[in-house]
Specification:
heterodimer; A: elongated; B: mainly alpha; 81% helix
Amino acid sequence: MIDHNNIDDESLMSRVCSGDHQAFATLVERHTQMYFAAAYRVCANPVEAEDIVQDAFLKLWNKPQAFDHSKGVKFTTWFYRVVTNVGIDAARKKRPMTNPDVIDFMADKADLADEMMSQKEEQVALESAIQALPERQKLALNLCFYEGLSNKEAAEILGVGVKALESLLMRAKNALKDRFDRLEGERRVSHG
Amino acid sequence: MDEKKFNALLKKRYTPEAPSNLATRIIDESRRETRKETRFDLKAKLGDLLGVFIAPKPAFALAFILVLAIGLGVFGGDIVDIDDESQNVGDVSMAFYVDDIFGYEDYL
């Protein structure tokens, strides 16, 4: 009996190509949390993130040949691209975005203690600012800053050169900084 | 806002945990998809079979056939003549060749 847990992702993928369902199950168990987080960062909605991860894994199961290890691509990098693309497709199909976290926050606002509220306020503001970024800037930030991928890997996923990726990243950070500087300024004015 | 403060702020981004049963759900769903695929579906098979005979782009197919027909109409005769001619040349060459080796009368 083979212990799939000791096999690397790429070898598991070769087994998935030959119909080994246990190998597929091992990949799902190994990476669900990581890709759920990645999907959540794309859509900012936990229910949608679940659907995105599920769709991406089912695509993998139905068409594992799409992963070509002979090109030297790591499974995790390739699958980030799959999850990201499924996430983008889902976002394009869905209605104009309403951030449920923001709505929850508004509803709970009255009951929260000051400190907790300012923390949550900060997180909501951050999430809203990131979600408001242009799609490619948001993805560049997600992949490099939150998923911890190298610039080269992120550039491969986005299908751009490293220079273009760095430019996207810089523009994303500058846009966020501007927004937070403005918010900070407004807060100072409102507090007198 | 300085870089350090900005990075600290970015790190505060909240990401929820995946539901504990998500992996199991995905695995179960993939099993169901396998079953769906392996079941024999007569309607789907017939559809596939019919699909072989359906021209995917009828306008393109019609235009292609028209061009091919015109092409054959214009050049078809020449092609046949050239073939006949080369066949005749081949026959004569063969006759001379055989004549050289055996003598014409022997060949007959």
